[in-house]
Specification:
150 residues; mainly alpha; 67% helix
């Protein structure tokens, strides 16, 4: 799932739950649940390709912009929303060191148990998964927007 969808989910959890002791672990757990859904990806899209890098940059930019907008608007509970948004997307940062090694042409480090688990739960990364991603984004945004009252 995209960083944008993970981020929106974390923000939405905080907007609904409002209790940090529940919202923060739920935001982290949401990452696993979303990665179990069919989503965009697949072996045909090379992580070295210009297309992948552009998609990654746009996704991270949109996710960061959403976090910035919530922080700037400061709705009730905004700090928890931003924290949950970041936490919900953060497990994907585990892939960053090996991706950077790959881009640099260096030997990849073996996956640890957590990375292996996170890779296994993404059982359905497919080119058509962008449809699921967009439908999820629109639905999550529709649920979130009414909850962003100041």
């Amino acid at each position: 799932m995209t960083a944008t969808n993970h981020t929106i989910t974390g923000i939405l959890i905080a907007a609904v739950v409002k209790e940090p002791a529940v919202a923060l672990p739920a935001a982290l757990a949401s990452h696993l649940l979303l990665d179990m859904l069919p989503h965009y990806g697949g072996k045909k899209l090379s992580q070295k390709s210009k297309r992948f890098k552009i998609m990654l940059a746009v996704d991270c930019g949109v996710a960061a912009s959403i976090l910035f907008l919530v922080a700037a608007a400061q709705p009730t509970g905004w700090l928890l929303m931003v924290s949950c948004g970041i936490l919900a997307a953060s497990p994907d940062l585990l892939w960053l060191p090996n991706w950077l090694r790959m881009l640099a042409g260096k030997k990849l480090k073996p996956r640890n148990k957590l990375e292996y688990f996170l890779g296994c739960i993404q059982w359905c990364e497919r080119p058509w998964g962008w449809i699921v991603e967009i439908v999820y984004y629109v639905a999550a945004l529709m649920l979130l927007l009414p909850r962003l009252s100041v």
